[in-house]
């Protein structure tokens, strides 16, 4: 992580208050040595560099609970450095890195490598999620005590549904002893077979093998049953079906310690988007029907689904420039998730900004047992500045991520990220933002992410 701590005065921002509403009057935020030194109108600059944010909204730093950084082993598609820059450009001060890399994160050595590679990047905080089983093969449990001691914030066989119920039970019991949540991918691989998209009218029309919603629902029912048996904290990854949402709702009503996430692309698109055989829309779980999408939106807004994620999984252009059947699953979403989810939930759905930010900032950290940043004097400046009035057309060539397999390319979406700070370090500044004042060198470090 970058050791450069910001000394900076943010002028003309609107703060998201504790009540979830934006303070009507603009204010300034003075940051000294990476900590918030003062908040108020027309603050004295003390010779610090100043950024005029033009009335943009400052919120606690956003957190993406589901990111695949591809390193170690998949550096041709993404590196920790490029993924960190993409996260910062997307407004995230921190991310949870999934273990489903080509070299799985199942030992202390891999976590140490992730920490080492994170140092010297733009400064985004990377929290490793370790594998539940060695090699993600669902057979032998990892040494969770050691992984937790090294910095793992959870365990998961992400991308793989642990086939053995006995192994999953022992894994949940072990994780509970270690104080770690288990993040579960719900997918019956046998039932999915060689399916490439949601099974339904559209897949039949296109002549493509389908993946029924039952793939998710069968495995989810089993996982929730084992969670009740063990008392383990369980987080359900990328829910995609109407029945899945209802099962999670009932589990919460029963008092199970369960949380859930949804991706921005599942909130936005349905299987109708695949009519052109565009592999940018190929993901697992697949995009489903309109009734599923509507249920996912309701689930987020009524609190059944706790957080919004990118499920960022970039691929090389060579890997995706093939026939739909042969293309890999996964989309690159770190730099579009905030805009896309804001469009469908806040602009279209009327959801409150406070609830939206909670689903992208405090709630994911609570699920992993991490400290929640606040916009308070004396705290680290871990924050995101969003221009809620902006509209932008998504262009892949502007991405910091190496991945271009993004379904939102060409779409015009609301919200622009103007500034991101992680634990007192500037990790992203909108290109072309004017800076004035100050004595000596700028407090905004110029790194690879600065265009």
UniProtKB/TrEMBL annotation:
EC number: 3.5.2.3
Any one Gene Ontology BP term: 'de novo' UMP biosynthetic process
Dihydroorotase catalytic domain ranges (all copies): 57-241
Catalyzed reaction equations: (S)-dihydroorotate + H2O = N-carbamoyl-L-aspartate + H(+)
Cell cycle among keywords: no
Family, per entry: Belongs to the metallo-dependent hydrolases superfamily. DHOase family. Class I DHOase subfamily.
Residues annotated to bind Zn(2+) 1: 66, 158, 311
Gene3D superfamilies reported for this sequence: Metal-dependent hydrolases, Urease, subunit C, domain 1
Catalytic residues (positions): 311
InterPro entries according to UniProt: DHOase (IPR004722), DHOase/Allantoinase_Hydrolase (IPR050138), DHOase_cat (IPR024403), Metal-dep_hydrolase_composite (IPR011059), Metal_Hydrolase (IPR032466)
Function comment: Catalyzes the reversible cyclization of carbamoyl aspartate to dihydroorotate.
Sequence segments annotated as region (Disordered): 430-451
An annotated GO cellular component: cytoplasm
Residues the record lists as binding Zn(2+) 2: 158, 185, 238
CDD domains per record: DHOase_IIa
Protein name: Dihydroorotase
């Amino acid at each position: 992580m970058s050791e450069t701590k910001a000394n900076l005065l943010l002028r003309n921002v609107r703060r998201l208050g504790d009540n979830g509403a934006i303070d009507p009057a603009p204010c300034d935020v003075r940051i000294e040595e990476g900590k918030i030194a003062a908040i108020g109108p027309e603050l004295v600059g003390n010779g610090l560099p100043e950024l005029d944010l033009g009335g943009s909204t400052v919120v606690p730093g956003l957190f993406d609970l589901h990111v695949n950084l591809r390193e170690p082993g998949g550096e041709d598609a993404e590196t920790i450095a490029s993924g960190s820059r993409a996260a910062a450009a997307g407004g995230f001060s921190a991310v949870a890195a999934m273990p489903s890399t080509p070299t799985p994160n199942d030992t202390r050595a891999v976590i140490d490598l992730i920490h080492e590679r994170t140092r010297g990047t733009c400064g985004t905080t990377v929290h490793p999620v370790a594998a539940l089983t060695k090699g993600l093969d669902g057979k032998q449990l990892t040494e969770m005590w050691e992984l937790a001691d090294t910095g793992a914030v959870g365990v998961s066989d992400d991308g793989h549904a642990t086939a053995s119920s006995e192994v999953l039970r022992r894994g949940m019991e072990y994780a509970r002893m270690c104080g770690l949540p288990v993040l579960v991918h719900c997918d019956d691989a046998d039932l999915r077979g060689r399916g490439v998209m949601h099974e339904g009218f559209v897949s039949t029309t296109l002549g493509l093998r389908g993946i029924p919603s039952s793939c998710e629902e069968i495995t989810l029912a089993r996982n929730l049953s084992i969670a009740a048996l063990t008392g383990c904290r369980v987080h359900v990854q990328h829910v995609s079906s109407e029945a899945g949402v209802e099962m999670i709702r009932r589990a919460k009503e029963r008092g199970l310690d369960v949380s859930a996430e949804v991706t921005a692309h599942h909130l936005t698109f349905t299987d109708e988007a695949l009519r052109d055989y565009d592999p940018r829309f190929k993901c697992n779980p697949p995009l489903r029907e309109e009734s599923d999408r509507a249920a996912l939106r309701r689930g987020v807004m009524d609190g059944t689904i706790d957080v919004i994620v990118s499920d960022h999984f970039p691929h090389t252009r060579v890997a995706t420039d093939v026939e739909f059947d042969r293309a890999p699953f996964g989309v690159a979403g770190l730099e579009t998730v905030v805009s896309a989810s804001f469009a469908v939930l806040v602009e279209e759905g009327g959801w409150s900004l406070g609830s939206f930010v909670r689903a992208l900032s405090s709630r994911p950290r609570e699920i992993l047992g991490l400290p929640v940043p606040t916009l308070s004097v004396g705290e680290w400046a871990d924050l995101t500045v969003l221009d809620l009035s902006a509209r932008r057309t998504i262009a892949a060539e502007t991405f910091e991520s190496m991945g271009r397999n993004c379904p939102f390319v060409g779409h015009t979406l609301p919200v622009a990220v103007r500034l991101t700070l992680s634990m007192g370090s500037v990790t992203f500044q909108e290109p072309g933002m004017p800076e004035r004042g100050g004595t000596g060198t700028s407090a905004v470090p110029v790194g690879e992410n600065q265009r």
